[in-house]
Design brief:
The protein is an alpha/beta fold and 380 residues long. Helix content is 40%, strand content 14%. The chain is built from eleven helices and 15 strands. A seven-stranded mixed sheet has the order 1-9-8-5-4-2-3, with helices on both faces. A three-stranded antiparallel sheet has the order 7-6-13, with no helix packed on it. A three-stranded antiparallel sheet has the order 12-14-15. A hairpin with a 2-residue loop joins strand 10 (227-228) and strand 11 (231-232). It is globular, with a radius of gyration of 21 Å.
Length: 380
């Protein structure tokens, strides 16, 4: 609706991701790290993976960080190590990537979806309490879009009901709640190093963090076919982090605080520009959270999300929709219908804008201009 977007004077696209620019910045350093691995002859696990694990544990403030081959496997192995399986229920968020729910099914348990806070998109602790049943074994919040879940409230619920707490932290490496890092806020946390993440490799990779020595030992065993030394207790997985990915991630880890700070600065510009717009809601932040903005996710009210996305595309600004379908509406979970109105509405309204460290000021201003002009049309 409304008039068409004016063509931008600068026809260069504003990319949603800045991976090519990131490579330009650290390419030589990363290439040297890869060549060092190639010359070493140690390509799976080994000293490069151990160094990366140690550095992650140090930065996140945990006793153990265990590299695996994907974020999905990080969830899967963590649940197996926690003893979650057939007959168990895991309360989790429907507003996330499908792997959040499907990983629960892969260990034979069943996800019990609870609704989200419409302001922050995080799992709503009050609805979590309403969903607890005698079969509930764990709560698995999602530290979504670069922000910690409401872990203080969820930890209290888990303690009161004697439940495990597993954080799907795939999108939030470097985020904090108070003085504690995401990764140190639950019994175990699972990270993804998919290339689009704030800390992303050049392929798949994942990490499990915990302070529990026995849990860490179980995960290390599970990632190598369930075998430790000469014992073989249960079937495991081939889920080892490649040394080349660890070397690349180790290089990027040193740059991550600066990159996350750049994301936060970009988010602050958006926040200021959108503060007085009735048709656009900026993302809410949980009290005490250090948000690292894996995504900057606005809400476009009145059902006009797709129209705004079209306007931005015409102006050369790339956007993404996360997530167009909440997990509980996926066919995989059709046998267990549940009404979750806040998640369902978010799926219709959320639009993610470019926020990567490589976003230029001119590119962001173009995005802001389109969004603000569109929003003012909606109330004129």
């Amino acid at each position: 609706m409304g008039r068409p977007t004016e063509a931008p004077s600068d026809t260069t696209k504003v990319p949603f991701l800045g991976l090519a620019r990131e490579y330009e910045e650290i390419g030589e350093e990363a290439e040297e790290a890869v060549l060092t691995v190639m010359r070493s002859g140690s390509y799976v696990l080994g000293p490069d993976v151990e160094r990366f694990e140690d550095e992650c544990a140090k930065q996140l403030g945990v006793r153990h960080a265990i590299g695996v081959n994907s974020g999905t496997d990080a969830l899967l192995l963590a649940m197996r190590a926690l003893g979650i399986g057939p007959g168990d229920q895991v309360i989790t968020s429907p507003f996330s990537f499908l792997a959040t729910g499907s990983s629960v099914r892969l260990v034979g348990a069943w996800p019990m979806f609870a609704d989200i806070d419409p302001r922050t998109y995080q799992l709503d602790p009050a609805d979590v309490v309403r969903r607890i049943t005698p079969a509930t074994k764990a709560i698995m919040p999602v530290s979504l879009f670069g922000q910690p879940a409401d872990m203080d409230a969820l930890s209290a619920i888990a303690r009161e009901h004697d439940l495990l707490l597993l954080d799907d932290a795939a999108q939030s490496f470097g985020a904090r709640l108070g003085s504690k890092c995401v990764g140190a806020l639950a019994d175990a946390s699972a990270f993804s190093f998919y290339p689009t993440k704030n800390l992303g490799g050049c392929g798949d990779g994942g990490l499990i963090t915990t302070d529990d020595d026995r849990l860490a030992a179980a995960v290390r065993k599970l990632r190598t076919h369930g075998v430790a030394e000469a014992s073989e207790d249960q079937p495991g997985f081939n889920s080892r982090l490649d040394a080349i990915q660890a070397a690349i991630l180790g290089v990027k880890l040193g740059h991550l605080p600066r990159w996350n700070a750049a994301r936060r600065k970009n988010a602050e510009r958006y926040d200021a520009a959108f503060a007085d717009l009735e048709a656009i809601h900026a993302p809410g932040v949980i009290r005490g959270a250090y948000h690292v903005y894996h995504q900057y996710a606005i809400r476009v009210v009145r059902g006009e999300r797709d129209e705004l996305a079209k306007r931005l595309e015409e102006a050369g600004v790339e956007t993404r929709v996360y997530y167009a379908q909440p997990i509980h509406r996926h066919s995989l979970f059709a046998a267990y219908p549940v009404q979750l109105p806040h998640a369902e509405r978010a799926a219709q309204e959320v639009l993610c804008l470019p926020v990567s460290p490589g976003l230029t000021e001119a590119g962001q201003e173009r995005c802001i201009d389109v969004v603000t002009r569109f929003a003012r049309e909606q109330v004129s």
